[in-house]
Amino acid sequence: MRQEQTGLAGKLARAFIDSKLTPLIIAASILLGIGSVLLLPREEEPQIIVPMIDLFVQMPGASAKEVEERITKPMEKLLWEIPGVEYIYSTSAPGHSLAIVRFYVGEDEEKSIIRLNQKMFANFDLIPPGASQPLIKPRSIDDVPILALTLWSERESPFLLRRIAAQVHDEIKEIRDVSEVKIIGGQRRQIRVILDEAKMAAYHLAPAALIPMVQSSNQQLPSGSFSSGNREFLVEAGGFLTQAEEVGRVVVGVFNNRPVYLGDIARILDGPEEPGDYVLFGAGPAAHSKKIKTD
Asked: Which is nearest to 101 in space by CA: 62, 67, 72?
C-alpha cells in the first residue's frame, strides 16, 4: 500500500495533533480572549479625533442665489486653502450661509481651529457689504446624545410638558461632565400683543412707533453707584416685563393730555407661543430632552 506524501500544512497539523502542548496552547488562547474582553477599556461611543467647525454668515435681505455667489463660494475657496481640510459641506439659504469644515482624522483639534480663525481674520476685507462677520463654532464628533428623555401625556398640554422638561433640564445640567442639554418640542411661554387697528387709529398711533417704547420698558440698566463706609452699592434702573398686566401698563403715547397705555389699544395674552415644531409620541404631544456627553 502506497503512503501519500503530505505537504507543509499537513505536517504542521500532524505536529499540533500529536503534541502534548496543544491543549495548553488552546487553554491559554481562551484565557487571553476572556482577559481581553474583561480588562481592555471599551466605550459605546469611542473617542475619535475628527475636528469639525461650523461657520455661519448672515446677509439679511439677500436671496439664496446671491448668498451662494457672494458668500458661500468665496468662503469655500478660502477654506480649501487650510491644510488638513478633508471635506466642506455648505448650505445657502435666503439671508444666511452655513459651511461645515471637516478635517482629516487625527488632525490636532486646537491647531485646526487656530488655522481656520487665522484664515478668516486675514480675509475680513473680502466680506461683501451687508454681510456679517463669520460666526465660528467648533464642534466634536462626540456631540451626540447619550440620553434622550421624552415626556408625554394624553391630558396635559405641550405648554405644561415643556415647563416640566425645563425643570428636568436644570436637574440634568447640574450633573458633572454634562456638556449640553437641549429641549425640543413643547411650547414656550409667550406674552402676545394683538393690536386693534381701529383703536390705534383713534389714538393716532402707528405700530412701528410702539416697538421702541416696549423695548425701552423691558430693560434694566445700571444708573450709578454710591459708597457707604467701606462698601459700594450699584444702582440699576428699570426692569423686565414678566406679566401681561405689566405689558398692558406700558405707556405708548399721549392723547388729549392723557397717557395711552398699550392695554388701551391691544389685547394682551399670556400663554403658550405659536408652535414652531412638533414632537409626537404615539398619538399625543410630547417634549423631548437630550443630553450630550463631554470628553
From this structure: 72
Distance from C-alpha of 90 to C-alpha of 100, rounded to nearest angstrom:
6
pLDDT: which is higher, 153 or 200: 200
- Domain 52-139 fold: Alpha-Beta Plaits (3.30.70)
Give mean pLDDT, residues 117-146.
85
How many whole angstroms separate alpha carbon 201 and alpha carbon 275? 31
Please give the C-alpha separations between residue 81 and each of 32, 87, 116, 127, 223, in angstroms, as whole numbers.
48, 12, 10, 17, 49
CB count, 10 Å around CB of 115? 19
Q: Which of 111, 119, 271 is nearest to 187 (CA)?
A: 271
Which residues does 35 contact at the CB level (< 8 Å), separation at least 6?
none
| Domain residue spans of the chain | 52-139, 145-188+275-293, 190-225+234-272
| Chain center to CA of 239 | 29
Q: How far apart are CA 75 and CA 78, in angstroms?
A: 5
User: Residue 201 class from Cβ within 10 Å (0-12 exposed, 13-18 middle, 19+ buried)?
Assistant: exposed
**Alpha-carbon span 62 to 174, nearest angstrom:** 42
Task: Give 190-225+234-272's CATH code, choosing from 1.10.10.10, 3.40.50.300, 3.30.1600.10, 3.30.2090.10.
Answer: 3.30.2090.10
pTM of full prediction above 0.70? no
Interacting residues of 13 by C-beta distance below 8 A, sequence separation 6+: none
